[in-house]
Design a protein that fits this description.
Four copies of one chain form a homotetramer.
Chain A (H helix, E strand, L loop, with lengths): L15 E6 L4 H4 L13 H7 L1 H9 L4 E6 L31 H4 L6 E5 L10 H7 L4 E7 L1 H14 L3 E10 L3 H14 L4 E2 L1 H9 L2
Parallel strand pairs in A: 1-2, 1-4, 2-3, 4-5, 5-6
Protein name (chains A, B, C, D): Isochorismatase family protein YecD
GO molecular function (chains A, B, C, D): hydrolase activity
InterPro entries (chains A, B, C, D): Isochorismatase-like_dom (IPR000868), Isochorismatase-like_hydrls (IPR050272), Isochorismatase-like_sf (IPR036380)
């Protein structure tokens, strides 16, 4: 691969937004060994680690968008989502489906964006919000690295956003899937994979 | 993960279409070692192997859609595509950008769908065509497994299509990326990853 | 215009769904002369008239989808909506923004689809729901005829749905705009404009 | 309607692009009285009048995008388009379907965007192009005022673009439909409807 056309990018280009993907109560109140959606070891700690990102965003006026996967209780909107490894999940009305507001430090002024699929862009008002906020760079945390984070990143990338994934604040269905997804995102945008420390530094330098 | 809600699916559910993703002349006329887009070893053979799928589709009246990544010559529409590992590629007017029609057995009645991004659904008339053809199942071949094939699969999945990927007729940027993407697709739809032999059997059994 | 290629369509083709567009409490609890969004004379009566459609749909197992225009309270998501005749409207939390559930006979099993723009398809999970319900024909009522109803019809039409508008159960910003929009919808699909009586007959004949 | 929240807008906000909608050879080489798509009296003159806009755009480095409605020759992608007043139109390969390049002064550097439906946004790479060009304001000319121009305007509006329609350089299916559509667009964005003279002045003042 030649690199003569590469333009170096900063961690944050233009205006950022922190996108907290699917950090929901199930992680905190459901301690089942066998889960409807598989989680890698240490998943919960990785979600807890995202709290510092939210606090930094709040301190530096970076918009915070909490994405919430939620399905209608009659299950009409699962589409093909039950045709693979995942089982019925995130039903509206189930306390496990709620955004983990207390744990994540949600406050008035933050946004909640419900979704029915994996990408935050698909069938939601996510991009209407990004446009209203004039966002250029998406800072992604949450889960699953290999599913909702990865596919939100891809749609962000295809829609011309600069996308960054906070590698120690995302968790996958397995360690291997998590690592493969991080590589895939780095393939799409050099410098996409960043540590929480680096991202917080970038936020505080705005 | 519990499985009590699983419904077994056939390889082909309803009406299929064969989606030949980005099998373009560059694979056949450009023998560079260093390529603008990385290819795993054996990539070209995997593209050649897709020819039998096209022939079977033709014989059994399965619509064939050739997806073609192509960028405007002034490069205005690359978006973030040059921010990662990929270099300038698939310019309109370059002979390497043409669909590999002879190699793939393209014939009148097949469709060509140009695209500017990775997913065949993104910014194209792909879904207008799928609806007109009343397609239920997408049979994917071509490349890259880990990019255009994977992300077309994801959008197909989110749009409620049954999606299958022909594992010996797709090639990735590297062996690891190829294998990780196949796992990701199988995670989304059990039975998604199929051999060419199995897919051709399913087509001939329609 | 020649008509040799025309295929006559039934009022309801395949599976229908009743789409109740933006019938919200403001129509019933806000009696202002000057409104944030203009209403033709008799607007309220036309919304009340839609109740019979909802009842018929309930009796004959036709899914009912209540579309609700609602904007985030910090007004970040109005986009260009305040650049024309319309003023700030439909803020989340304002009692006038609620779907007129009692008036319309909303019951458990009906769906509510919030939106930020005019077309029910734009930035919403509307089409995810239509696919899950396997809908072929959209029966539209509510308001404004010339804005949200018209533009939902157009997107439905472009997405290959059969679209019908119940002319005595929709109301526009003015009589002229209402009538012009009905003509525009009839131009797109012959037989699109139907009376409530005809639509209820079609529902009861399913 | 109250106006206390109105912000006055300039004719051109930020960066403009000239969008030439469906000015195709059929207008110039097909003199049929009965047309597959109805045209108001003076339609052809209104298309010819758009030439001055193209020339001005060229002189002042405003990108010019020619939208072309074109259907695949096997007619698979008409969707519901033949269910109303329109008959089979714009088939690929038919000389009448070509963009009227000579008449409109098309030159290298201009863009052609094929589409299968009415809105230039629907199932096309139109918005990928607008983003690449960093466009803020769409200047619309061409036809039909009441269909492709109107519905492109609506999607532009919903996507947060400033939209302007050049009233003497657009033509509708009838005078009444043309005038009603202009009113509808002015309703959405105050100052949307502009004369060719005013638009050219705004371009030359950039």
């Amino acid at each position: 691969m030649t690199t003569k056309t590469k333009q170096a990018r900063k961690l944050i280009e233009g205006r950022p937004a922190l996108i907290v993907i699917d950090i929901q109560k199930s992680t905190f109140i459901d301690n089942s060994e066998v889960r409807t959606i598989d989680n890698m070891p240490g998943y919960k700690e990785r979600m807890i680690a995202a709290r510092d990102l939210v606090d930094a965003a709040h301190d530096y006026n970076v918009p915070v968008l909490f994405i919430q996967e939620v399905h209608r209780p009659d299950r009409i909107d699962f589409g093909r989502e039950l045709d693979g490894d995942e089982d019925i999940h995130c039903l509206e009305g189930d306390p496990r489906t709620e955004v983990a507001k207390d744990e994540m430090g949600y406050r008035k002024g933050d946004y909640i964006v419900p979704k029915r699929r994996y990408s935050a862009f698909f069938g939601t008002d996510f991009e209407i919000l990004l446009r209203g906020l004039k966002v250029d760079t998406l800072l992604l945390c949450g889960g699953l690295t290999d599913v909702c984070v990865h596919y939100t990143f891809v749609d962000g990338h295809q829609s011309d956003y600069f996308c960054r994934v906070v590698e120690d604040c995302v968790g996958g269905s397995s360690v291997q899937a998590h690592e493969a997804a991080l590589k895939a995102m780095e393939y799409l945008q050099t410098g996409a994979v960043q540590s929480r420390e680096a991202v917080i530094n970038a936020i505080t330098s705005l």
